[in-house]
């Protein structure tokens, strides 16, 4: 094994480079190689890793390559993924029941994984050159690259004119599309009123408009789940470019405010395409009401998405919950499987589904600390109902995370019973 005594940082870097070169193709590299971070071995063996991001003092660190070598175990880093680790590294908070104050050497080691440092010499982040014609060259490194968020903006085209077409202020979306929502609603209501009267017209419009909004919610989820998060073949430059345009750019620059909403120009062609389908299968009045609702759902989605990135919702509110979860979608659970994957922006949480289907009627209010206090309502005329509980967790990203159902046993939901469930 390569011997290490007291060396300057410069000499250690030389040893790291020499050892990495000697054991590049070794299946069992020496321990020293595993201990010296940032080696070529790391880069080659882990180039397909999905980033594991931590935040410290306003900086992002991608520790995916270090996770398995972490002295406290990989599980600790996975638990903290996407969050601020300052208090944990200073030994002020427990993680998995343990407090540990990290040394200066640990902080220095962490700096090797500073995303900002990694991006300083990244040719794909050159703001003077369009990246679209070069992005396919990333090949196998593409998936890792797009999931290392960049806080700035990326130039797509060399042409200033084309570049401007890719940038849209959030208020342009409601300004362009809401007049159409009002227009088609008016057209639908007018025809229904002429044929069936005012009452029927208002009821039918309300039903079809709501169905349109719900249809968009479903479409948005399916698009995000199966199209936006499609895994391209990284050996195909065409697939890489296509994925980058569809959604990869957003994950690379999640805070670029000019690229959070969909530009009206390409959106117009998509809207015309779907409108031609709906108008061919629905009566004109039904199409107007349904189409207005679906278009309104899209506007709500785009504005909500922008707010989740740049808004400041009240802590403990529903919008705060969604902001935290969407933050983790970008910085933590890029491809987490399951119902709570939350690909979509406009979704129903599990407690809302419980209310919808009558399995559990939960009502809550916010106390003075911004915590949710749930009141468990009776669900039967007899005044009580036995319910089999299951310990479904709240989203782990919230610092007040607790178990949604406190005990795993059968219990009675009495009219006056309250359970304080904090998150």
From TrEMBL:
Q: Which GO terms describe its biological process?
A: fatty acid metabolic process; pseudouridine synthesis; rRNA processing
Coiled-coil positions: none
Question: What are the record's GO terms for cellular component?
Answer: endoplasmic reticulum membrane; ribonucleoprotein complex
Which Pfam families does the entry link to? Cyt-b5, Nop10p
Q: Name one GO molecular function term.
A: snoRNA binding
> Major location, coarse class?
endoplasmic reticulum
Looking at the record, the residues that make up the Cytochrome b5 heme-binding domain are: 40-119
Mark the transmembrane ranges: 169-190, 197-219, 267-290
Supply the alphabetized keyword list. Endoplasmic reticulum, Lipid metabolism, Membrane, Oxidoreductase, Ribonucleoprotein, Ribosome biogenesis, rRNA processing, Transmembrane, Transmembrane helix
Looking at the keywords, is Chaperone present? no
Membrane topology, record value: Multi-pass membrane protein
Subcellular localization, per the record? Endoplasmic reticulum membrane
In the record, the note on similarity to other proteins reads:
Belongs to the NOP10 family.
The name on file for this protein is: Nucleolar protein 10
Source organism of this protein record: Mesorhabditis spiculigera
């Amino acid at each position: 094994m390569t011997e290490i005594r007291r060396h300057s940082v410069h000499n250690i870097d030389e040893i790291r480079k020499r050892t990495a070169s000697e054991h590049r193709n070794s299946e069992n590299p020496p321990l020293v190689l595993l201990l010296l971070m940032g080696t070529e071995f790391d880069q080659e063996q882990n180039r397909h890793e999905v980033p594991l991001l931590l935040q410290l003092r306003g900086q992002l660190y991608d520790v995916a390559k270090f996770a398995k070598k972490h002295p406290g175990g990989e599980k600790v880093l996975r638990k903290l993924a996407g969050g601020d680790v300052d208090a944990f590294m200073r030994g002020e908070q427990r993680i998995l029941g343990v407090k540990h104050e990290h040394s200066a050497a640990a902080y220095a080691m962490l700096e090797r994984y500073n995303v900002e440092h990694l991006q300083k010499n990244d040719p794909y982040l050159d703001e003077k050159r369009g990246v679209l014609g070069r992005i396919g060259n990333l090949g196998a490194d593409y998936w890792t690259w797009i999931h290392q968020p960049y806080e700035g903006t990326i130039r797509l085209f060399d042409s200033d004119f084309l570049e401007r077409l890719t940038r849209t202020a959030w208020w342009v979306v409601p300004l362009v599309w809401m007049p159409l929502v009002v227009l088609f609603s008016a057209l639908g209501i007018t025809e229904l009123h002429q044929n069936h009267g005012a009452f029927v017209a208002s009821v039918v419009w309300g039903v079809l408009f709501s169905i349109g909004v719900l249809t968009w919610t479903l479409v948005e989820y399916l698009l995000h789940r199966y199209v936006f998060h499609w895994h391209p073949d990284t050996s195909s430059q065409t697939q890489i470019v296509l994925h980058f345009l569809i959604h990869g750019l957003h994950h690379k620059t999640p805070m670029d405010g000019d690229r959070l909403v969909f530009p009206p120009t390409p959106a117009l062609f998509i809207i015309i395409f779907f409108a031609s389908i709906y108008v061919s299968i629905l009566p004109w009045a039904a199409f107007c009401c349904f189409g207005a609702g679906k278009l309104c759902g899209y506007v709500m989605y785009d504005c909500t998405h922008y707010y989740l990135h740049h808004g400041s919702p009240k802590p403990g509110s529903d919008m705060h919950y969604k902001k935290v979860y969407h933050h983790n979608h970008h910085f933590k659970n890029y491809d987490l499987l399951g119902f709570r994957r939350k690909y979509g922006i406009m979704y129903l949480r599990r407690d809302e589904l419980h209310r919808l289907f009558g399995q559990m009627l939960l009502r809550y209010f916010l106390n003075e600390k911004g915590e949710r206090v749930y009141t468990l309502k009776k669900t039967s005329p007899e005044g009580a109902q036995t319910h089999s509980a299951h310990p479904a967790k709240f989203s782990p990203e919230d610092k007040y995370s607790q178990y949604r159902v406190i005990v795993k046993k059968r219990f009675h939901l009495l009219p006056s019973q309250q359970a304080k469930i904090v998150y």
